[in-house]
Design a protein that fits this description.
The chain is an all-alpha fold. It is built from 5 helices and no strands.
Length: 138
């Protein structure tokens, strides 16, 4: 079998089929042309679906960056970007893990004592000096 039949050749074969039976070579050529057309159609559909997925991913990234900018952030988490592409290998941080990294969520004000700031005394000593300064003020 040679190259795929052209559109004009397929139309000629269809005209011949209307007038009478096709030879086996003509029928094979018609089938080959139909297969080529179907493959091209499926390829075009797949390409359109791929382009649509890419557009959706781009919109999701733009939304993610926009929300980060609105919050005043200068970076976007890698796990969040991965989710846009369906990558779940990098787990999202759990709320408990984030809180543990950030430390206690108790507002701390500087005591008016001569001990200095809480940050300089370390997390353990800072909590103890906060407690002691609260006791003294009561």
């Amino acid at each position: 079998m040679g190259a795929a039949p052209t559109r004009d050749q397929l139309l000629i074969l269809a005209d011949r089929a209307e007038r009478g039976p096709l030879t086996s070579a003509e029928a094979d050529r018609l089938r080959a042309g139909i297969r080529v057309m179907d493959t091209a159609r499926r390829s075009a559909i797949a390409r359109l679906a791929h382009d649509e997925r890419q557009q959706q991913r781009l919109a999701a990234i733009e939304s993610l960056v926009g929300r980060a900018r609105a919050r005043g952030a200068s970076t976007v988490a890698l796990w969040a970007l991965g989710r846009v592409f369906g990558d779940t290998r990098i787990p999202a941080p759990r709320v408990e893990a984030r809180r543990a990294r950030q430390g206690p969520s108790v507002p701390v004000s500087r005591p008016n004592s001569a001990r200095g700031s809480l940050a300089a005394s370390g997390p353990q000593n800072g909590a103890q000096s906060l407690e002691s300064s609260l006791r003294r003020s009561s």
